[in-house]
Design goal:
Blueprint lengths: L4 E5 L5 H17 L3 E5 L10 E2 L5 E7 L10 H4 L2 E2 L4 E8 L7 H11 L3 E2 L2 E5 L15 H19 L26 E2 L8 H5 L22 H5 L5 E2 L3 H13 L7 E3 L1
Parallel strand pairs: 1-2, 1-4, 3-5, 4-6, 6-7, 6-8
Antiparallel strand pairs: 8-11, 9-10
Helix pairs in contact: 1-4
């Protein structure tokens, strides 16, 4: 067997990256294939074509935003050149629900001439609160991601590249309307720049991180990366959602996959 196994991911808070890497590395090792990463998180990485070969296997991992794929990925996904490659969409959600995100990702990949041979959903710490899905994916989650990769390798080793049924509704649920707002910055900020480099939208001013241009998607990358906890969201909508999550979504959920 030839080709390359790719971990393709958008991962502002690094949970999707961790799952994609572990699953793709396990798959590559089992099939004795080369492994490469494509990180769609930096703004410069999006908006350009990514061509794949028919023998390639692409593990595409992303965070679930409101039961859908992140809207900002649509333009990049439309530029993928699948050329018959095998695809594995992996949704990472904050212990609430996957809803239609996995099915939507599978549809995008199939539309780009890829065959969805497997799919999975995993849990990450919720962007809004560490009290929901705390410290996940943990080692148990990542061990399951490795087992997922091994199961895909076993399928391909049998010469089976058949498409897999992916759960979700079509048409997808409506996206929640975007709300304005950005994190506030406390006086404890030392202007270290970690939030600037970690922002997937490139909207935080490098000279004054308290200045944030329009375009924030509330991914909380800046909140999670700040070593001093100097960034936080204070707007009423985020506060209300956070309270709801902490009341209703604390019971740990488990990964699921389809091969």
């Amino acid at each position: 067997m030839n080709g390359t196994v790719y971990a393709l991911y958008f991962s502002p808070t690094h949970t999707s990256r961790a799952v994609s890497r572990r699953a793709a590395q396990s798959l590559a090792e089992a099939l004795n294939l080369p492994f490469e990463e494509i990180d769609l998180t930096p703004p410069a990485a999006r908006g350009k074509a990514y061509p794949f070969a028919a023998a390639d296997i692409v593990v595409f991992s992303f965070p679930v935003y409101g039961g859908r794929i992140p809207a900002l990925l649509e333009d990049t996904l439309s530029l993928i050149e699948g050329n018959g490659a095998a695809a594995v969409p992996v949704a990472v959600y904050g212990n609430r629900a996957v809803e239609d995100a996995l099915a939507e990702a599978a549809d995008w990949l199939e539309a780009r001439q890829m065959t969805v041979i497997a799919a999975g959903s995993f849990i990450g710490e919720h962007s809004y609160t560490a009290k929901v899905g705390h410290a996940r994916p943990d080692e148990s989650d990542l061990s399951q991601a490795a087992a997922f990769g091994a199961a895909i390798a076993e399928k391909l080793g049998r010469g089976d590249r058949s498409p897999v049924a992916v759960p979700g509704n079509r048409p997808y649920k409506d996206r929640a309307p975007a709300s304005p707002g950005a994190p506030v910055t406390a006086d404890t900020c030392t202007k270290c720049g970690l939030c600037v480099t970690g922002c997937p939208m490139g909207v935080i001013d490098k000279d004054d991180p308290a200045k944030i241009a329009p375009g924030c998607i509330k991914c909380c990358a800046c909140v999670k990366v700040c070593p001093l906890g100097a960034k936080s969201f204070k707007d009423a909508r985020v506060t209300a959602i956070t309270k709801m999550l902490e009341l209703t979504c604390k019971k740990p959920k488990t990964p699921a996959w389809f091969v």
